[in-house]
Amino acid sequence: MARERMTKEERLAYFNRLVTPDTKLMDLFDEMTILCGDGIFIKEYESGQTVTWNEMHRWTDTVAKGLIAYGIEKGDHVLIWGKNSVEWVVCFLACLKIGAISVLGNTANKESETAYLLKNGDIKMILMDEGLSSVRYEEVMENLCPGCLDRIWNGSGEFPFLQYIISFDTENTDNRRISLADVEAAGTNITDKELAERAANVVASDIINIQYTSGTTGDPKGAMWDQRCLLYNLQGISTDVEMYRGDKLYTSIPIFHNFGLLGCIVFPIIYGITVVFSNKFKPEEFLRALYEERPAMTMGVTTMFLAMLSCPEFHAYDFSGYEMRIVLAGSLCPQRLLEALRNDFKTDKVIVLYGLTEAAASANTNMSDPLKQQLTSIGKASGGYTFRICDPVTRKPLPAGEEGEIAIKGIAVMRGYYKKPEETAKVLDEDGWFYTGDIACMDENGYVYISGRAKDMINRGGEKIYPKEVENFLLSHPAISDAQIVGVPSERYGEEVMAYIITKAGEVLTEEEVKEYVRAHMAVYKTPKYVRFIDSFPCTLSGKVQKYKLVERARKELGL
Known about the structure:
By secondary structure, the chain is α/β, with parallel strands linked by helices. It has three domains: 178 residues, 3-Layer(aba) Sandwich (Rossmann fold), CATH 3.40.50; 228 residues, 3-Layer(aba) Sandwich (Rossmann fold), CATH 3.40.50; 100 residues, GMP Synthetase, Chain A, domain 3, CATH 3.30.300. Helix content is 33%, strand content 23%. Strand 1 and strand 2 form a beta hairpin. Helix 3 packs across helix 7.
């Protein structure tokens, strides 16, 4: 595609002309649809299904009308629960158009996580696919709310907001359930004028998205985003990555994570990019897709690229002869991986992205950065963000070179945790600074170097696991008296989960029984890789468990 290349400064100017604090993503979608028309917007790699910009635009309006017909109002909470698919995307865009708040469900969630999300998230409607081989969503919902999948259902006292559960089925193959086809059919009674009025009532400062994370208290927290968060999270990375209308991006990153949401939906709408995605990661398939699709950009987490570089089929594919940009996020990236990516994928266009659910694309390296900084830092604060390093106790700013806690401020920071004002106040101060819990130092040029994990959080291949949540669940086992969860180093995933268990007097458990108990009720990635039984935990005089001593013990026991 012939086009005039732009400098970074010109790309930033383009972004700032396009995006203002009052800009709505759906207005940009309207404009880009006019420009791209019958060009491909999304392609599902596995099925080969494609959807053009025009088709997605019409489909979005149809589904949005259907949601209105089903009584979805501005501010209502709609859970979108499924793998990467064109149906997922259209449901998200339809919610965005009418001002419904999309709550993003992790595909691995089982009954424990789903029950909490339905209650805390005040979910009115669920839009979902069939689930995974290990988690069938209909079974999860039927166990939580017997009869809820039937067309006529009287509701649940336990989940008072929940009214509708809609399958992604667009062919209406199961008449016993309400499907997306039913929603589309219901929308025929809604006029274009009514849809336009609903869309006009949405403003950029409205909360439009809730993404759940977890906290050290053990309760998941819903980070609230408005449209400014969606758009300004990309001010930095989108100007550092040189992409143009019609360019192609390939990934299998889940779009229920903010990395996938921004990369596969928001970024393409701003720049007119074609997205090709897979609905699960398999190293050989990812490599084959890169070779066949020849994307201008790919994105993934550290563990994905480690797996690809270790894949026996890697050298069967020749990636020379074209420029591919690689964007990495999800966990700290080893220097040896960055060097391997540059050598084996034959590209010097590798960018490391730092972010959290509360402040997604908040820092990144730049291809024009000195090589040392590209390989050892997380780069500088991205557009839309300001960084400072603070004393973790006093929160006073520290000078360059001193180690402390990363604090982030900017228009793209989350607006707070849903229904958790006290938790919000702990991390978001009155001046708008968000305190991450990550320990780092910043040099005199603004490059940030992370030296520690965020408090006790475990980052297993990009999936954030907070020990207290798993610990609290383990305490529901009748044979367990107490439990502590720690993270231990892993070559493959960055970190793995390890459980220390104190059993009740007279009770006997095996390592496998503990694993199976977690695996059966929680997301699989939260299952401990290692389990050890212990008589007591190391504690302070006040009785607080000293987790760092458990980590030291774990490393010795595992020879790490």
